[in-house]
Amino acid sequence: MIDADVFIVDSGSTDRTLEIAAEHGCTVLENAWVNYATQYNWGLENAAITTPWTMRMDADETITPELAEEIKRTVFQADAAITGFTLKRRVYFWGRWIKHGGYYPTWLTRIWRTGTAHCEPRWMDEHMVIEPSNIQRLEHDIIDENHKGLSFWVDKHNRYADREVRDLLAISEGQSTSDSLDEQAGRKRWMKENLYSKMPLFFRAWMYWFVRYFLQLGILDGLPGLVFHFLQGFWYRFLVDAKLYEMRREHHH
Fold first, then answer.
1. How far apart are CA 74 and CA 140, in angstroms?
2. What is the per-residue pLDDT across 67-100, written as a single tens digit (0 to 9) for each?
3. In angstroms, rounded to a whole number, what is the distance separating the alpha carbons of residues 188 and 196?
4. φ, ψ for residue 74 (rounded to 5)?
5. How far apart are the first and last CA of the chain?
6. Confidence band (pLDDT; 50, 70, 90) for 252?
7. CA–CA separation, 114 vs 43, rounded Å?
8. CA–CA separation, 253 vs 248, rounded Å?
9. Are 229 and 218 a contacting pair, CB within 8 Å?
């Protein structure tokens, strides 16, 4: 058993989350919501973290047993020069593992030596930045599965779209940040800033979905994949463009 402290940064839960967390020995901290980056950085500053390593988890993620074993075996015996670890996220939608469409593996920096990391101050797609950066890969996965259904998912992505608009406006003002990220995240960010953001509104959403669903074989993910790739790859990106267009239109009036 790993002797680890679990800190939950909550922003006003109204269900039994905090009760259940306390029953399992978690420490609950409360902070008003601004965005993910602000919340993570607040948590890192305000949680009394005494362990040599820190791991970031989102509320709808679980650790596979294989990853738990690997963390015990690899992280605790890590060479002193290693400052962090990336691991793979495996997304499930309607019970189906979304394996295609460039969606797996998504590599995320989630474990670091305590005190070496902060979260980028972005509205969307924020990554942990570790300094000094000597990051190794772990083989096994964390699982990301939303159990709250489609209406919750759509509401959440509608709010994501508002934050994405802020980031795209920052990109158009020339604020690039892709250089401080690990390889895959940096490449995705570079493509977003240098290719996607320069393509015509609306057309780019269609193009992105086409590449993802047909060229990257999202079509192989079955009916859940049809819904997921269309909503997450086309509808969401189209909504972001519509909100951007609306904002510019109101600005000109």
1. 11
2. 999 999 999 899 999 999 999 999 999 999 999 9
3. 10
4. -95, -50
5. 61
6. confident
7. 12
8. 9
9. yes
Q: Rounded to whole angstroms, what are the CA distances from 128 to 161, 197, 200? A: 21, 23, 30
198, two tokens: 């320069």
> Which two three-digit tokens encode residue 190?
């570079």
Would you state the structure tokens that stand for residue 249, as one six-digit string?
């239109």
CA 244 vs CA 156, 163, 176: distances in Å: 18, 11, 19
Distance CA 33, CA 38 (A): 8
225 within 8 A of 219, measured Cβ to Cβ = yes
Residue written as token pair 């934050």: 163
Tell me the torsion sign for CA atoms 70, 76, 77, 83.
Answer: positive
Q: Which contiguous run of DSSP H or E holds residue 172?
A: helix 149-172
Closest CA to 53 of 108, 117, 140: 117
CA–CA distance, 95 with 195 (Å, rounded to integer) = 33
| pLDDT attached to residue 1 | 45
Token pair for residue 123? 């509205």
220 alpha-carbon distance from chain centroid: 24
pLDDT tens figures, 171-204: 888 776 555 677 888 889 889 888 998 999 999 9
Rg of the chain's alpha carbons, rounded to an integer? 19
31: three-class secondary structure by DSSP? coil
DSSP 49: -
Q: Residue type at 58?
A: D
